[in-house]
């Protein structure tokens, strides 16, 4: 690559030659940049004259920015043309509309490459014939980034000077206008610094003509102006640049005093000649204060306009810097704080003039005779007048030293300012001398043991300006190496400017997503820098939002910076911005993470954790008086000028202001948990009784309002809880994943994602609002991947969901990318089986009677009460149960409850104590209708009861894939027994068999995985039970799916060869995936040794099937299968099989976590709170679930941590209609109940000869008639599941323990393939 200069003529050889701009030499790039830059001889009416005064500049006419032509042109419009520019095209630029920022940014990015491709001009959508010069893009960029914003700033400032609020200060405004009339809009203003003149751009001056918070540049200008005007320069002044350098050196301890090449060292060399070090400093990240360090006297003067306490983070670096450059500087603990007289700043009426007041305090200290201290600044308008006076001084000095215009500007003398200061309605000039400085000593965090601390004596100042009027809470200190937020404010023009600079280099990739997202709104204004009030905005808010254009006088509006997001805020509050941004999918992952972290740091739980951490670090010591010398670790947040600070800790809290703050944080945290755990309505937070409750116990605690509680504290607590959950899950492995969708009452949609640990702790990972998106399988998969990427994909081993079309596709896409077990939810599958059975025409009449009867009692209080008394009299147990839309198998449980209460209903109906409309005749004793109804009800329950009980059992979080297989076997056997004993018509029995066959085939044969049978076989108890023993010809059996090939030859001693072969094939398939794509280190070490791996796997699996060493023993007392297999983890004799088994038994094979979360949301989102948003209910649900999981659960000694629920246990889990909490809840919504349509009673019959209307599977018998089946439905385990109570069972004798097999691998086995091969 050559660096020689390339003349414009030489560029011809580079054009139309297929070159890429990023690859050409830098000299060629520079030449192209010069050609596409604004020429020097540009027409004068395009760029304003640099000597134009700011008053005239504010009234110039710029090319229009409001135009829709570029919008209609679309994104594909080709701007570059090989035609030459039209004659006089440059003169037309001032009348042509300026394209939006996004378009200009793209033009600047592409102009270099387009020039090499032969482009000579630009064309615009409004004219096909007009061709503009290529430098037009640079001109448009200058209009957007410089001219239009600066023009609007000056125009707003001049308009503010003419506002009625400043009419009392006409004697200040009038000379300022004269100065502005002689001030050019372009260029710099110089002021004296420690090493010469410092230039400040005039573009920063409009901030003085506003109520905008002054930035670092303005403070540096104040320091340089003071330095230049000081006659006695014994005090060395520090600007913000040196202040940050000193703080960084203090933090890193890398300062070298004698380094002449270091600018900080050269600055420090002046300290030995100076009497002090002072300046205006940034305190707590949002406030300007004045401070002076006098090393020779051991004093630190601190002046805070808001009356705040001294900030050690300012004083300590300054004292340390003095010590490094002057060895006579005393230690930090010998310094004392003294109050620097400072004007008062009433933050309730003026929060933007702290820099002006700090400058006045510092100037008054340095030259008290010439600069009186401002007074009455706690009254409205005084601070603004002082700001204008300071600007007037700057312009006076500048105009006197270098007049620019021919217009004669009358010089503004110091007497004008004095007249302003001496006016009766303005600022009083009388001041005490410097001797009136009040001395205040700060306590040390760790008192010196060698030096006694004297009692402090506070000498109060004689003037009222020193009285603290506002307590600034201690805020998190900004990083020493970072720029304060005031100098890093990011407005829209700053964003675009960054993009512009990056694009103009032509060698950086440009992300236009941010610019394009706002291009439609940015071209509707000529200014994006309206007047700002108050303190500077937080930096992260400027990253998450962008300010929209506004008309003068209208409130400021911000929009989410996400590409295409239309969420807006007026005003912009941190709580609402963070609540939206942490979940906005249109933001980048980095910005979402930034929002989540910032929100978590503001959470009550985070504040309480910080308080507890500080308490652990705080030593218990005697009270430290206020006169304790200052140390480097002194804390000023708990200093009081009227009390004695104690470091004692009582009842877990500090004393004093810090203790009050800790109590506030703890109480806020408890309130947040209470509202979420008890699902308290938001309106309670604003009740007077709620606030009075806390006033009884503590008058210092003020509970949060409803808005703050729900919009700020709960949202931030959710972010904190999510952060804690992620930290917890990052320590886990073999996590189970589940997801599902739902909706709330206002129509909003939500998708939840859960993770379950091996210890069966369920964590709500995400609750994503998705009302306005299509819930496709691709979208769901992307959502899940985005969520688990925060934890680590390698930590998840299984994924489960229901089997709807989109969730099934999502599971398939997830398992394609990750080595996870694909587990369709068995409970939804069983519930669909129940629906199929309930849809049979034979059962519809009985279900109509059941639901109609139950609904009658729901609306008849007298009938319900009579039924309750009668069933209690007869000892029938629980009452009726209603059928709900969101309850599994609810129709079946409704029928069971009616059968249980039939004796009481018959007594009441026969004696005419109650009347059930339409169905009364079915409950009169010994009538044909009642007997027929009882028969059909018994038949329905006999067929469906096993499914309902199986669903209840499988909902347990401790269920494993092996249990799914076991419960299905029990359900099939129960249905088989019902078909044999209930005397159902043959056609109905045939339809039932079709349904069961179809559902069995869908789940176990045509399903995505064979994990259930495999886990069943790897269950140490099941493989030893009589379920898999070879049954005799008369036993009830269930047949496995037929193999395509003949059964493989298996080793001797295998009792179930077909099952052994099927399970072995699946385990081999799973093993190969885990070795090549999994994260198990033990298995991955075999990746280069496939033959040895397969040999060991076959040996271990054979030993397990033969029940020989090391698998001779089954589960121990209270031991789970996962605990059993974990004993073999990493071992030579069982490690390979154990790794696969642990993956299977760690998996949670259902998505009940999502169902429980939606149930919790339903109870929270009641009918009276139907306007709640998705974010609110998800936040409260997440907080509730987290803190419930944190509670320690007390178990009885006899309790098992992971019990296997039997069918007879289900009776104790049901509740009657009388116990249904919804009947007593005013928030109960009847729409929750399943819709019931009363039938035409004249046509309701109980005819058994009804043909099913739904075409089902073609099979007509259950899979039970094969003599070669290896499942024994008459086994003790199946009977125990189905029994009405616990049954005694003897222990199955174990086989004799075989000798330890030789599992060594030959060295030549390191090569080969992963093929399974034969077992023998």
From TrEMBL:
Coiled coil: none annotated. Residues 449-458 have a biased composition (Basic residues). Residues 1239-1249 have a biased composition (Polar residues). It comes from the Eukaryota. Residues 1222-1236 have a biased composition (Acidic residues). Residues 432-460, 515-537, 1222-1249 are annotated as: Disordered. This is Ubiquitin-like protease family profile domain-containing protein. The lineage of its organism: Eukaryota, Fungi, Dikarya, Basidiomycota, Agaricomycotina.
